[in-house]
Design a protein that fits this description.
The chain is about 65% helix and about 0% strand. With about 170 residues, the chain is mainly alpha-helical.
């Protein structure tokens, strides 16, 4: 955790728990907020997958992680924002699998095995991995275009990991 202290020693403690009010609380709060935002988007992805986007309320998402509906609005303005975040995170996970495989210092056959093994683990471990396919119509045209671009990058990396790109021939 990053802490910033005041250079003015004469300031009496005035924050919570007697801490100096000049201590940078937002840094700690931001880290906690990022973790909560990830929890919320993952819970929403599961709910959207199980029930469908339109059958999930903001209160449903909040209660899935032990929050109230109003507390959820500190992290996301609307349900659409949660869906976009969840899809982005899921694409990022798949992209990371492909990137690790491409960057691995192994031969083509081992690279394919590594990629397919990690991808299979991902698909088996996360039921909601195909949320994009099911709920993309809920996104704006610009958001869909952005996600398609990211999917194209994942496809490029996938082809490379499988030895189908960069001049590599499958073994």
């Amino acid at each position: 955790m990053i802490m910033v202290h005041s250079s003015r020693a004469e300031n009496p403690p005035s924050g919570r728990n007697g801490r100096n009010a000049d201590v940078a609380q937002p840094v700690r709060q931001h880290a906690r907020s990022s973790v909560r935002k990830l929890q919320l988007s993952q819970a929403a992805a599961r709910l959207f997958t199980d029930r469908g986007y339109h059958n999930v309320s903001m209160d449903d998402v909040a209660s899935a992680v032990g929050l109230t509906g109003p507390a959820l609005y500190r992290h996301f303005r609307k349900k659409h924002d949660i869906l976009a975040q969840a899809i982005s995170e899921q694409l990022g996970v798949v992209q990371a699998v492909a990137q690790r495989s491409v960057q691995a210092d192994v031969g083509p056959a081992e690279r394919r095995t590594l990629f397919l093994s990690e991808l299979a683990d991902l698909v088996l471990a996360r039921d909601e991995v195909f949320l994009w396919k099911r709920e993309r119509r809920q996104l704006s045209e610009d958001e869909q275009d952005g996600f398609r671009n990211k999917l194209n990058e994942v496809l490029r990396l996938t082809m490379q990991a499988l030895g189908l790109g960069n001049g590599e021939e499958p073994a």
